[in-house]
Write a structure and sequence with these properties.
317 residues; alpha+beta; Uridine Diphospho-n-acetylenolpyruvylglucosamine Reductase, domain 2; Uridine Diphospho-n-acetylenolpyruvylglucosamine Reductase, domain 3; Uridine Diphospho-n-acetylenolpyruvylglucosamine Reductase, domain 1; 3 domains; five-stranded antiparallel β-sheet; four-stranded mixed β-sheet; 26% strand; disordered N terminus; binds flavin-adenine dinucleotide
Amino acid sequence: MPGSRRGVWAVSPAADQEVGVRAILDALPEVAEADVPLARYSWLGVGGPADVLVVAGSRDQLELAIRLAHQYGLPWHVYGGLTNMLLPDSGLRGIVVLNRARAVHFEEGYRLQCDSGAIVVQVAREAIERGWGGLTWAVGLPGTIGGAVVNNAGAFGGEISRVLVSADVFTPSGEVSQVPASWFDFRYRCSKLKGAGERWLVLASEFRLRAADSDELRAKAEEYSLRRTRSQPPGRTLGSTFKNPPGDYAGRLIEAAGLKGTRCGGMAVSERHANFFMNEGGATAADFRALLDRVQSEVHAQFGVQLEPEIEILPEG
Ligand SMILES: Cc1cc2nc3c(=O)[nH]c(=O)nc-3n(C[C@H](O)[C@H](O)[C@H](O)COP(=O)(O)OP(=O)(O)OC[C@H]3O[C@@H](n4cnc5c(N)ncnc54)[C@H](O)[C@@H]3O)c2cc1C
């Protein structure tokens, strides 16, 4: 029923959903569109249509889209750069919000305030130019601050959880609450919000960086960028497919199993970095899942190691 408040997980009958979809298209005419192929926005270039896509350019638009989704009982999903998601070929029902709320403030005392849609690479670059240390490891990290917090992204020994102080989150009951970093229950490439995309939303984050020498930070950034260029293949990919198992590397195991170059449809294991799966043209989510299963079972058969996905895989609807 339009206007009533429902539980976040409740889905209205189809007629109400149509009213909700219309309300969102009317409230956000510049940024909301019906029936949009998500493959256009995903780094992998895979994913069926969203019933409605909202490309939110500000925190207000982000909050409005989610409030309307709640109000009309529509399922919703929020993504940043879609750099770490295998989206289903069947697409996603309800509202998909791409978060491009990108305000960033460098404040006294090395306090950094970022909207969750801020691009990590841009924030890290600006920190380097200002002589603020703590985010240099993130110079080549694709995606947004929100995605990095939810995934506890990290590289070259750095991790977002080490510099995060607090975040503003939108709770399942629709309130905005400030939570400390410890609330996220961070683990390796994971937080308690990973996979909780229809219940919680990170709106903004505060980080504490430290004084450092810009030239030294620049040199480090250069080194990290070079290491990425040398080891990682360019192209349509989700980055590391599997987590590194304790004491080993997923890429090393996949390569040792003789799986470099293995193909399923349009997906292939990269020849340069065996933990990267590449969309070589026209790949589907089904191709990706088939390749993932094949690699997982072959590595298990040969080495007894069960590789766990680092990427997030959404089921077909
Ligand atoms: C070439 C390449 C290299 C990579 N290298 C690294 C690396 O070195 N280290 C590393 O850790 N990762 C790496 N990744 C993976 C990816 O870049 C990170 O996981 C990144 O932090 C994801 O951010 P995103 O904005 O794209 O998130 P998305 O892929 O858009 O979303 C990921 C998850 O976060 C949730 N989410 C996103 N924003 C919000 C929000 N505001 N509130 C609540 N939930 C939210 C989504 O619902 C989803 O569950 C790489 C990926 C690629 C393609």
